[in-house]
Amino acid sequence: MGETPMAGLIDFEDLPRSEMFDVAADGDFPLAHSLRRRKRELDRPEPVIAGHDSVI
Amino acid sequence: MTNEWPVDTLDVGALRENGWRAVPFQQFILKLHGRCNLACDYCYMYQTGDRSWLARPKVMPTEVIRQTCQRIAEHARDHGLGHVEVALHGGEPLLSGPKVLADVATELRRMLPPTTMLDLVVQTNGVLLSERILEVLLAHRIRVGVSADGTRETHDRHRRYANGRGSQAQTERGLRLLGDPRYRELFAGLLCVIDVDEDPVSTYESLLEFGPPRVDFLMPHGNWSAPPPRRSPDEQASPYGHWLTTVFDRWYGVTNQETEVRLFTEIINLMLGGESRTETVGLSPVALITVNTDGSLEQVDSLRSAYQGAATTGMNVSTNSFDDALVHPSVVARQLGLAALAESCQRCDIRDICGGGHYAHRYRRGSGFRNPSIYCPDLTTLITHIRDRLRADLSSLAV
Predict the structure, then answer these.
(1) Less Cβ around it within 10 Å: N or C end of chain B?
(2) What gap in Å lies between CA B216 and CA B234, rounded to an integer?
(3) How far, in Å, CA of B330 to CA of B327, rounded?
């Protein structure tokens, strides 16, 4: 994947992101799930809204 | 005359003149039934002093259902929405019976534009889940979220019938049925209200026994003027933060993920540069509206925990479109992101992750909702803990 803007709390500038996502590709640990979700969002951006916390 | 933000002081007209535009509603909370078969001690509907529910019909009448479905369809059409979520809520929505549940699903699917995908979910205490009800939910593709508070003892302490008897056995029976292979696809997840006096790992593992695809932990509603249990406004202690970090470590430290924990996954997604899909954290616009059994519109029902009438808009589906509600100051305030935060929050290092916390938890009598969360120390503890673990793990992943 190409350069991706990441503006979270963690400074990602020094991390090789593509490798990070590659490592997560086959993992079943919780962080791997989160990385895959983030990659999906980066590949197919769409507006995000916040929902009710009392609905799951 | 009060001087509270946003109801008394937010100038929506000025915002619009400066180019601000509302985000259309995409989640609709329908109060199908206005009463509950339980009397949980932390309930924001019935235990916070707001008695407005007494004046409303018990069940949403057919005409209100029809008008509500029409309004949702109108909103979807006018804004070209590709997806809407409708949550059947209460009270206890299953009290309305299988026919009402089926009617709502049928009417919605009949009226929505073919280009709008419908996600329909019922949020229940699980007590009335039976094969008969589950067959109706299956036939109408209505997913099921259940409220459950962990161990049998914790559940029975808080989630009681009016006579004081606990409801855990009935909820467990319902959850076992929901976990049956025939109905399993309907299972949306479990909501658990935190009791910091209970062991966090036991609570989490008790929920895991039902094999939920997703879990979320909710902080009990409270605010600066009516603090939640074990949370003093004057203290920097973070009992909820420590409770949640213990659950986080138990959830996070496994090789194979056992379930998704929404609060944690949303915080991680924010840290990865994404946005949050829950109102609890982050700065995403809140695009939800509540319809009561009489058709009246509320911005979000949990605001009842702040003060009587906090959620009221003065509007009704019989006379107002959802677009009318989009410009209500209290709705607008929840779509302003950073601009809605208190000054001290705006200067905070973790503001984009925390997002000021749940809106209802920011209330202070006299000033309104432009305050940090009453849970500020807890959110800080949790977020910095997750940040530290994530930072270390991402560094090692990238080697």
Answers:
(1) N
(2) 28
(3) 8
Query: What is the reported pTM?
Result: 0.94
How far, in Å, CA of B24 to CA of B377, rounded? Answer: 33
Predicted confidence (pLDDT) per residue in B186-222, tens digit: 999 999 999 999 999 999 999 999 999 999 999 999 9
Number of CB atoms found within 10 A of residue B140's CB: 18
Residue recorded with tokens 């020094």: A14
Question: CA-based diameter of chain A, in Å?
Answer: 38
pLDDT digits (tens, 9 = 90+) for B75-93: 999 999 999 999 999 999 9
A30 contacts B257? CB cut-off 8 A: yes
The partner residue sitting opposite A8, judged by closest CB among B190, B270, B280, is B270
- Residue B182 DSSP class: T
In angstroms, the CA B165 to CA B153 distance is: 12
Confidence of residue A10 (pLDDT cuts 50, 70, 90): low
Question: Which residue of chain B comes nearest to A13, CA vs CA?
Answer: B395
N-to-C CA span, chain A? 32
- In 10 A of CB B292, how many CB atoms? 25
CA angle B276/B281/B287 to nearest 5° reads 60
Q: Render pLDDT for B349-358 as a digit per residue (tens, 0 to 9).
A: 999 999 999 9
Among the partner-chain residues B189, B273, B288, the one whose CB lies closest to the CB of A51 is B288
In this prediction, residue A2 carries a pLDDT of 32
Residues 5-44 of A with CB under 8 A from B: 5-10, 12, 15-17, 19-20, 23-24, 28-35, 37-38, 41
